[in-house]
Specification:
Helices cover 43% and strands 21% of the residues. By secondary structure, it is an alpha+beta fold. The chain has a five-stranded antiparallel beta sheet. α3 (113-131) packs antiparallel against α4 (135-141). It is extended and about 70 Å long. The two termini are 21 Å apart.
């Protein structure tokens, strides 16, 4: 995005720079100033005319140079467009930063032991069901709204002929954000190998996909909701 915004901005500046003023006189010489003179003879000759251009008087004022006014207008428009592109780029960056800040953990602290014991099996259950493309299990551990969003992602990937696989999943650290007891927020740092498998491709191809994926560490905030029976389910995962 940044690369293309810079290229577009430079291109607009180059396009919209004022053209060099060119005298509209055809075939005449352009003197440096002084008085005009005429010479010639019978049967033919040449005429040379010089004009002093002070920019204010006479037919050769600066407005006579054909593209002066148009070039100025073009430069203004070009500057406005370039500024607009730059402003749009800055707004995009600001939105991304705000979104990233909103997704990041806020004021986390050590997790309550009882909450940690409840969360760990839920975390592994979700990750295993996701990797197995098991919608029935995901529906049990997600709120209806969040399940609808995640189901749409899985459906889109299936149409594209791929399944998101996770293996070597392991929790590294658990914390929590300040939240209400019935809607706890757990900050989980974990690691996993995350890759796509393509069922229509040969086994060797999918093995290559697996082998090329590294085990990487990630941090997410799981926003939970406690049901009337005490069960914890997932209402959102901030990544």
């Amino acid at each position: 995005m940044k690369k293309w915004a810079v290229i577009i901005g430079i291109g607009l500046i180059m396009i919209c720079l004022p053209l060099t003023a060119v005298s509209a006189r055809a075939g005449g010489s352009t003197g440096g100033g002084g008085t005009g003179g005429t010479s010639g003879g019978s049967g033919g000759g040449s005429t040379t005319t010089s004009y002093y251009n002070d920019g204010t008087s006479g037919g050769r004022s600066t407005t006579y140079y054909g593209r002066g006014t148009t070039s100025n207008r073009g430069a203004i428009i070009g500057t406005m467009i370039t500024f607009g592109v730059f402003l749009l780029y800055q707004i995009t960056l600001a939105v991304r930063r705000a979104r990233s800040n909103a997704q990041a953990p806020h004021d986390s602290f050590p997790i309550d032991d009882d909450l940690a014991k409840e969360f760990e099996p839920l975390f592994y259950k979700v990750e295993d069901a996701w990797s197995a493309d098991d919608e029935a299990t995901l529906q049990q551990v997600f709120t209806p709204k969040y399940f609808g969003l995640q189901r749409a992602i899985l459906f889109r990937w299936r149409k594209q002929g791929k399944i998101n696989r996770l293996d070597n999943v392991a929790i590294v650290q658990l914390e929590q954000e300040a939240s209400s007891p019935d809607r706890p927020h757990v900050v989980v740092t974990a690691q996993a190998r995350d890759y796509f498998e393509y069922p229509d491709q040969p086994a060797a191809y999918n093995q290559s996909q697996h082998d090329q994926a590294y085990i990487e560490r990630f941090t997410e905030v799981w926003e939970l909701q406690r049901l009337a029976d005490g069960q914890l389910i997932v209402s959102n995962i901030r990544q």
